[in-house]
Fold this protein.
Amino acid sequence: MNTNLHQLCLSALLAIGFALPGEAADFAPAVAEFKAAHPDIDRSMQGHVWYPSRAEGAERLLRGSAVWQDIFGHLDAKIAPGVFPVVLISHGMYGNTMNQAWLAKRLAAEGVIVIQPNHPGTTSFDRDPDHARQLWLRATDLSVALDQALTDPRFADHIDPTRVAAAGHSLGGYTVMAAAGARHDVAHYAAGCAETPARTDCEVIDMWKVGADPADHDALQSDRSDPRIRSVIPMDLGGAQTFAPESLAEIDMPVLVLGAGRGDMLDQDVESRALAAALPADLVTHIEVVDAGHFDYMGICTDEGYDVLKREAPGDEIVCVKAHDERMAQHDHIFELIMDHLRATDVIPHG
């Protein structure tokens, strides 16, 4: 396995955490677990929902780690009165719902319900190769998770189904683009990887045997869009070259493409820049976040995190480079960019 692929398969993605610093927000961010099953196939998920509450008192520990700052929230608190917009968040390769808990918690504090599924086969605790091969189901996971929330007695009456967005990091960026209508193109992608087989995305697709069986092609290339989603935010996505160019040109919703200015993990020319160039110019906003790295879209490392990983999982310590004060500052900036986009697209209503 070469260095790029090794970095994507980071065992450090198993559990990360975040404690929200700063001033108190309008809502107390609460979090609860959910489970959902696909109605037509043998695929079930679990994950987390962050949501606004009026809970008082101290937050409780949701997840702790020696590498990542602990995640705290108001566990299973009653949701606040009202109807709220929704943001679906898709984690990256072998990640989990903790990866963007920092973002989910901040959004909940602003009055957003955030739904985060763990994607079977490509999550930290489920690396089943057969599920990973069925890459097309990642986008469907988001739809199933939203369906579940809309029937969940805890949240159903508090969701505004006309204000739904989706954000995803790395492979999660691929996922939200598929949910917006981008379609996999087997022949187009194979031709590109024949010229650059060592490219990170090509190696991952080959490792998972995505599209290797012609019997999968119809499902892999099918339209997995969800008409309830009105805007998407891919964050330093991986897999832009998998998509049929014509399907990207037909995307009919606002897209905020967030890249990584440091370009420390993914080739921006192949990924975020290429995606932004292929989307309708009047619907895309492309921001290459200055000095941000791929892992700045993840949690905050502890002071000891880098050394722990270097000692126990050599190579994985890359996730903790610039991962304290500088990453906290990046989180502030990324969050404001996302909030500005959600307001501009009226996912979050003004006023």
In short: Residues 325-344 form the longest helix (20 residues).
